[in-house]
Design brief:
Split_barrel_FMN-bd; about 120 residues; Pyridoxamine 5'-phosphate oxidase N-terminal domain-containing protein; single chain; alpha+beta; Pnp Oxidase, Chain A; 3 helices
Length: about 120
C-alpha cells in the first residue's frame, strides 16, 4: 500500500501546519482519498486555513481522535479548495464517515452556512 492509501484508510490523520515562526501546529482531522490526494474539511476561518494560505507545506500522519500519532508523518503540500471542490469533498466524507459524517456536516452547515467551511487537498511527497 502507498502512504496515500494507508492514510486515507485511517479514521483520523494528524495534519501539521506551521506558524510564521516555524512552530508546528498539529490537528487531528477526518480525511478521505480524493484521486491522487488526501482531502479534508475544516472551518473556513480556522488557524490552519490561515497557516496554509501563508505556507502550504504540511505533514500528515495516522493518529487517534486525540491526535496521538501511531505512524510516521509524510510531507505534503496543501491547497485550499473552491466551493465546488469543497462540496465534492463533503460528499466523499459523508460516504466514508456514514451517519456521524452526515450529522456533523449538517450541523456545521446549519451553524456556519455553506461558505463557513472549506475543503483542503493535500498532495503527498
Amino acid at each position: 500500500m502507498t502512504d496515500l492509501e494507508d492514510l486515507a484508510a485511517e479514521k483520523y490523520v494528524l495534519l501539521t501546519t506551521y506558524r510564521r515562526d516555524g512552530r508546528a501546529v498539529p490537528t487531528p482531522v477526518w480525511a478521505v482519498r480524493d484521486g491522487d490526494a488526501l482531502a479534508l474539511w475544516t472551518v473556513a476561518d480556522s488557524g490552519k486555513v490561515k497557516r496554509i494560505r501563508r505556507n502550504p507545506m504540511v505533514t500528515v500522519a495516522p493518529c487517534d481522535v486525540r491526535g496521538h500519532p501511531h505512524g510516521p508523518a509524510v510531507k505534503g503540500s496543501a491547497t485550499l479548495c473552491g466551493p465546488l471542490e469543497t462540496r465534492r469533498i463533503r460528499s466523499l466524507l459523508k460516504q466514508k464517515y456514514r451517519l456521524l459524517g452526515r450529522l456533523t456536516l449538517l450541523g456545521s452547515r446549519l451553524r456556519r452556512g455553506e461558505q463557513g467551511t472549506v475543503g483542503v487537498r493535500v498532495t503527498l511527497g
